[in-house]
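pls ignore typos typing on phone
NAP + seq
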Amino acid sequence: MRVLLLGGSTEASALAKLLAQDGRFEATLSLAGRTASPRAQPVATRTGGFGGVEGLARYLRRERIDVLVDATHPFAAQMSRNAIEAAAAARTPLLAVERPAWQPQPGDNWTLAPDMAAAVQAIGSAPRKVFSGIGSLALAELQAAPQHTYVVRLIDLPKVPLALPDIVFVQACGPFTVEDDIRLFREHGVEVVLAKNAGGDATVSKIEAARALGLPVTMVQRPFIPPRPTVATAEEAMAWLAKCWNSTLESR
Ligand code: NAP
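k done
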């Protein structure tokens, strides 16, 4: 069974590993190409956009893909919407792997924002020391609030300089520990944590560190993605794919 796996997430890497160990499946992992040196993967990898819905539908037909698995990051909404439309156009079954969002716990001080622009505004007009764990894609949005001092953690440093007078970059790749993040926040005197509700374990340490230190969190909520068949983990995706495999055998 030929599987196209849209990646760029922890779950996609875990699923690529499981698929590589299972002879029933021949998987290709697709990456957008945003990370300069992505981790080596145990399945065939392709990199770069498909060219919108039409390009992806064409790829699905040309490569005779049997199942499309969208395991992109929960904030990669454009790709996920394209996957829904392209799968329908090419009549390819689609499965999404989407980890649950983080939930506030009693005592947490979260301000919810519908998008990054609103989140940056929600931090307020008074200058604050802000930890940004939002990744590189939304970084330019911080320029709307130059009054703050930013501590920005990133995998790759930005290629284009940001118009912000007071910014410190911490170049690091998760997963991180709560202890590390508590130390980092104390060291820089962080007052507010700006985060996207990515969910999962790999980057939750900043939320737990904010909880431990009683810091407010400005949380960007997930973008809307139309409903589609969805599981939460790589293991559940394998079970779904195995069912798909069995029903294909039965129908032959
Ligand atoms: P996006 O806004 O949803 O997608 C923009 C375009 O990038 C898509 O239309 C597609 O181009 C291309 N693209 C995205 N994911 C792709 C994939 N896996 N394979 C091939 N092309 C892909 O996506 P994004 O938010 O820029 O995220 C890009 C990548 O980074 C994704 O793989 C995502 O999983 C990962 N990521 C994103 C975030 C985040 O916060 N957004 C965080 C961590 C990792 P075409 O239309 O030309 O096909």
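Residues 6-9, 30-32, 34, 49-52, 55-56, 72-73, 75-79, 82, 135, 137, 196 surround NAP (CB under 6 Å). The mean pLDDT is 95. more later
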